[in-house]
Amino acid sequence: MSEIASAPRRPPQGTQMLLVALKARTFIALILVFAFFAFAAPNFLSTANMVIMSKHVALNAFLAIGMTFVIISGGIDLSVGSIVGLCGMVAGYLILNGIDVGLGWTMHFNTVEICLIVMAVGVAIGAVNGVLITRLNVAPFIATLGTLYICRGAAMLFSDGRTFPNLTGSADYGSDTFRLIGAGTWAGLPVTIWMLIAVAVLAAYIAGRTPLGRYIYAVGGNERGAALSGVKVDRIKLFVYMFSGLCAALVGLIISSQLVAAHPATGQSFELNAIAAAVLGGTSMSGGRGRIGGTIVGAFVIGVLSDGLVMMGVSSFWQTVIKGLVIIAAVVVDQAQQKLQARVALQAEAGA
User: Fold this and answer.
1) Which residues cross the membrane (predicted)?
2) Model-level pTM?
3) Which of 105, 115, 133, 272 has the fewest CB atoms in 10 Å of its CB?
């Protein structure tokens, strides 16, 4: 007489709905925050404010995309804000001064060359972070904290703490188009948004469609298991920090272009917003889990929250407190989701 296996027991409908709500928490939070400020903040829905807010969101989203890869791999990058400031100063220095190569000759660069040099600086700093972590076995928190101070100090040294003003560039050297990076538009959208779309699509493709993406998740989920499976763990970690440095360099270029000036203090606390956006978007601080799409939505939540609080006249001190509470709440909700999913899985196995 053959035994008939019973179908897996489905969790109660209330549990299912709660699990769906927890998975969609970032979208729900975005809708609630947007609706609240639409009524509470004057002119929040105006076209001008939407354009400004989209640019602010884009800056945070760039950093959050790079941070997502780092966190998924099991690390953290506290240096991105300082890389933003340093890369902005590098761009300003190149535009205003060029590079003195000796013999009374100065090398000047056009906009494309300046962007490539600045991005190379960001990637190089990310590589330093990766080498410290993989080769010297420095904890990611300590390595990137040290890089944070080094980059901030280097940014100050570029100009003795002063601002590089009037970065309008020169038509003779082809750098007069630099301002279009942050202020230009194409097909009705700011160039910054097009850049974000390109980076987001690239990151989503890497994460979801390539072996590299699978390796990043594998390293964050079980580093030893990934290494035993043949994954080059050190190379994966090096890549994610270099990619994070690249994203930070792009933000440095955009901000210096928007302001037509570069200041060494630019980017302070940007890393907190990036971490908040990634965590709010569902990226697990323990590694191995996260999605680029969720991070983008998380960046929108942080951006809407920040701009809305400013329009309501809320103190910047309270804004910092609220962002901290958002990070804590996001982690707590993520842990609740994981526990609920584990319980549902056990119930399903028990009922099988």
Assistant:
1) 27-45, 57-76, 82-99, 111-132, 138-159, 180-207, 238-261, 292-310
2) 0.90
3) 105
